[in-house]
Predict the structure.
Amino acid sequence: MEALAISNYDNIFKRYDLVSEGSGQGIMATAKDADLQKIMECVIEGETDDILGLVDEALTKLDPMVIINDALIKGMNEVSRLWDEGTYYLPQVILASDAMLAGIELCEKKMGKSMEKKGIVVTHTAEGDIHDLGQKIVNALLRANGYEVIDLGKDVPVDTVVNAVKQYKPVMVTGTALMTTTMTAFEKISNRLSAAGLEIPFVCGGGAVSEEYVTGYKLGVFGKDASQAPGMAADAVNGGTWQELREKYNG
Ligand code: B12
């Protein structure tokens, strides 16, 4: 019987799943320049070791916020798309999120804790939900813009959120939910805060939630993109009510 032999070694080190197995067309996102493109691809390919050097180098010429928005978040959005089209599975998604978070950490260090704090924001990911990447991006952007973030983490019980608002008296509270089964915690938090007379803007985002859902309960303001968080916090610091924020940011 004739032995099977590889005649072309060109693709030997290429990721088999992207090149040959995916039902889609592979990586489709493009960044604004070559440096950002390389960083974005490191996220998509889950290259945590390589991303550190690239982000370090990029930080010598680019604003950390540009690297976060135009490479790191962009890469993670592409990962979500590759998951949706069936090209990516859990291992790739976990590697990608590790790479994105390593890059964000470097950018956060560069931005430092320079500015005087403008106000406190409590952030959390809904009870039962471990999808905290959106929340981590929100944390990084708020900190970068001078807000003190009380990060309650993921899978946070309703009580813990309500107690944190009582304790820290933030200008705004945020929630992230990626599952239809977990987003229902937001309405419970909203009712509890409202009953306690703590009527601050409660900005809710994450793949599972829609504007229609979030604006269906008191205090709820829908956050479509993490980049909106600093502007929303600034409005809250300036006395903006949840109704005013809802009117400004939601249709
Ligand atoms: C990454 C991922 C994971 C990772 C999570 C890693 C982590 N640390 O977060 C891992 C592998 C652990 C995982 C596990 C699971 N996952 Co998962 N996962 C995903 C995936 C592929 C991407 C989600 C993601 O991180 N996107 C990128 C982030 C940045 O997006 P984001 O959070 O939505 O944030 C953006 C906006 O929404 C907004 N935003 C978010 N929050 C806020 C807050 C404010 C204030 C503002 C202004 C904006 C804002 O800003 C961000 C952009 O700038 C999605 C599929 C998809 N296409 O979304 C499935 C998905 C969310 N997972 C799903 C499921 C079912 C699970 C599991 C139950 C699987 C299992 N059977 O075990 C477990 C969950 C266990 C649990 N209890 O939570 C389902 C949920 C279905 C549903 N609608 O209920 C999805 C939709 C996949 C699917 N189509 O079935 N998952």
About this structure: Residues 73, 76, 80, 83-84, 90, 93-94, 97, 128-135, 137-138, 174, 176, 178-181, 203, 205-208, 223, 225-226, 228-229 surround cobalamin (CB under 6 Å). The longest helix spans residues 90-111. The longest strand covers residues 120-125.
